[in-house]
Structure formats: structure tokens, C-alpha cells
Amino acid sequence: xxxxxxxxxxxxxxxxxxxxxxxxxxxxxxxxxxxxxxxxxxxxxxxxxxxxxxxxxxxxxxxxxxxxxxxxxxxxxxxxxxxxxxxxxxxxxxxxxxxxxxxxxxxxxxxxxxxxxxxxxxxxxxxxxxxxxxxxxxxxxxxxxxxxxxxxxxxxxxxxxxxxxxxxxxxxxxxxxxxxxxxxxxxxxxxxxxxxxxxxxxxxxxxxxxxxxxxxxxxxxxxxxxxxxxxxxxxxxxxxxxxxxxxxxxxxxxxxxxxxxxxxxxxxxxxxxxxxxxxxxxxxxxxxxxxxxxxxxxxxxxxxxxxxxxxxxxxxxxxxxxxxxxxxxxxxxxxxxxxxxxxxxxxxxxxxxxxxxxxxxxxxxxxxxxxxxxxxxxxxxxxxxxxxxxxxxxxxxxxxxxxxxxxxxxxxxxxxxxxxxxxxxxxxxxxxxxxxxxxxxxxxxxxxxxxxxxxxxxxxxxxxxxxxxxxxxxxxxxxxxxxxxxxxxxxxxxxxxxxxxxxxxxxxxxxxxxxxxxxxxxxxxxxxxxxxxx
Length: 534
Fold this sequence. Notes:
Keywords: Hydrolase, Magnesium, Metal-binding. Its cofactor is Mg(2+). This is 5'-nucleotidase domain containing 2. The protein is built from 18 helices and 20 strands. By secondary structure, it is of the alpha/beta class. It folds into 3 domains: 39-68 and 394-461, no CATH class; 83-93 and 265-393, HAD superfamily/HAD-like (Rossmann fold); 98-251, no CATH class. Helix 3 packs across helix 6 (203-219). The model is unreliable at 1-34 and 517-534 (pLDDT under 50).
């Protein structure tokens, strides 16, 4: 009833109903007389909203989200999917976090022993709670930072080395703005001319090492070229992979490093039992994949897959037509015969997607491919080839558990309600009211910082920069139909299940919708205060 009365008042103030073919004239709203003691009026509204939010959040409102659920960005029916494809690392094989300090230490020692970096860097250990996935690094400014979907740096999340950079300095560094132009941000695969985005889980130890090395050089007043330092660190991390160190650690203790192997077997076995065709495309070498799959699935794991491709060199596998497939024998040695078909049970190396499509005829939305890297695994497949895609986001499980806490629910709901108060009450501009609004703004900022720190003290959630999605989230939505914490989430759904994305309103679709949602009540107690501006 409230909104209808407001609408009628607005029409009547225009001097009548618009005639056909003419636009109704709406007279400017007259300033409303301020009630006496405006600050008391505002604080009364504040207390009303406090009570409303408290009454609307009983304890059982928490734990509403299931960490083992699959979330849809796009409508997709598994009934239509005939072919399932998989990456290996962090998709079929989930790795324990214990792998990250091993990568960090090995790369740190390579820097010292092979690149002749100062011995003092050895004092740094891996800090698992420092960085999060999806951050950007400005090479020339030595800044590690979090950027939102609109290319704005989230203030309070810019670090040089291990120290936060003041907001004023960040704004000055970018010419008086928080905005990073698109041409600087990134190309199609997240690599711009001077800014790189860290998108895979293996980049966590890389960000930590980069920050530690910068911290050492700054702390000891050593001059350095930012581009050289960045390249040396990334090369040292690359050496850990190229030299096979990471593969050795995992192979030596698979029980320690590989998680959910039995669930991976259950997923693959279930799909095959329902007549689905499976394939594997990974950048990892055959010997490593073979040992891992034997551990998780058993010695006959290749019989589950119609096609297995190793050392594929993604993402160029999806775009470069020049590399032919090579067959490997049982010992992993390259064969010389020309590939005219891809056989079940055989192992192939390199190749390209165009030959893959020609030989298999697996095209379009009947193919669903899972991977953990939004650029290297999913972007080309969705945008250029029309496959359906599923993103594996292990961090999702922890973030949902935090979202389900009472502290998060109360903090976020009150933050949203307070934001609604600020929007409505900003029309009161006398001196006392401005002081009240300033106090509310301060409280809102404190709430945002508290909510951010629940996820990560430095950078917050990988999905949110306060109210906006992160740049990572934007890419996640653009490049994946589905996303989930692990492949095992498929076990919670039938193989013919249809996933429907939730319809969330655009800003223009329902002016009061968000306010009503955050308070949980249609009887917002001060609609009258908005009558002259709605």
C-alpha cells in the first residue's frame, strides 16, 4: 500500500494524468519541513532499524548455504551433457595446502642459490594467511592489490612487500584515482603490459615470495629494478615446476598431498555407469598423472576415459593449430606415427583443440569441461567453442562456512540496513544531522572492515570488494556455467539434474527490493521520508 500511495502523490503533483502521446509533467518536489530536533529523529530511525534487524535474524537463519552445493551462473541441464572433460591438477586431483610452503621454500632457495639473491631472504617463511587468489600485481609499482569488477582498487588492500600502502598514496600513484584503465589491467589471459593477475592456486606461494623479497629489499634500502625482481621470482617458481620438484613431493607422499581421491573415483565411475564419455586434457606429464590416477582410481584408470591428453600446453592448446598430437607408448616414450584417430586407453601428448574437435566430433553444449584456472582452462572453451564449463574453486568451501556464521550474517545485514539509512536520510543536511550521518558512515566503514577481515585480514574475500564483485568474480561469472568447491559436489546431484541460476534484480527493476531484502520486512518504517525523492 505504501509504494502505491507514493506513486499516486507523484502523479497528482504533476497536474493530472498524461494524455496519450504526451509526457506527464511532474513538478519538482518541494523541500519537506525538517522535524524539530533532526538528530533525535535520525537516531530514532537508527534504533528502529536496529530492533528490526535483530528481530529478523534468529539463530537458525545461519547455515543456510551448503558448502558442497553447485552454484549456477547459467542455466544448464546435465541431461543434455553427453561428454565430460577434466583438467588434472586441482580438478581431478585436489591438493592439500601443505604443498604451498614446499613450493615457497624451494623457490626461495633457488633465488638465493642460483639467482644470487641476498642470504637474508632465507629468514622468510611461508605465510598461508597473507594472500588470496585473484589479486593483481603492478610490476612497475611493486603493488599487490585487489581490484573490483569495475577496475577500481579496493582501498585498504594495496601492499608493497608485506606493508600496506596508504590509500592516499595509492590514489596518487594512479593519477588521482583508484581506477586502473583496461589497457593496463590485462589481456585475454590476465596479463597486461605492466599488471598481472594471479588466477591459479599455485600462485599463492608466488605472491607470498614476491612480497617477501620486495619487503627485504625495501627494509634494507637496496635499490632494485621492479621488472627484474618480478621476473626472477616468477622464474624461480617456474623452475620448481619445470624441474619436477613439485611432482616429486606429491609422488613421494600421495596420502599427504592428494585429497578426496575416493570421491574423484566415485564421480568418474558414476558418469561412465550412466553412459557418459570422458576425456582428460592436462598440462602435467604422463608419469605424474599416471601415478596420481593409480592412487585415486586404480591401475585401470585409463579405461574410464575415451581420450587422455597430457602436456597439452594450455591455453595455447585451444588457439594454436600448428602442434600435432603425438602418441606415447606404455613407458611414456614418444611415437612417430601420424595420428588419424584418438583411441580409448591410449595416451596423447600436445596437439590442439581444432584437431581434437575434428577427430572426436565433440562440439558445443553437449560437452562440459571442468578446470580450476578461469583463463587457461575455461575462457576459450566457453567464448570461442560453445562448450559448457565448470569452475573448481576450492576456496568456496571455506568462504561459505564463514558466510554461514552468525557473526557474518549479523554484520552484513546491519551493514546493509545502515547503508539504506544513509541513502534515505542524506536529505537532512543541517549541522546536527550531518554529524549523525558522519557517525553512521564511520560505523559503516568499520563494519565493512570487520566483514572483510573474517575472510582475510589483508585482502578479504576472493569474491567481494565490499559491496562490488571482485575482478575474479566477474571472470568467474563470464567464463563458467557452474562453479563448486570440488568435483565431488557432483555426487550430490542426479546426472540429469537441471541447474537454475537465481534471478537477482538489476538496480532498476525494483527500487526498494534490496532494502526490503536486507531488513526482511516489507513494512520499512520510514517510507514517508522517501516520498519526495522516490
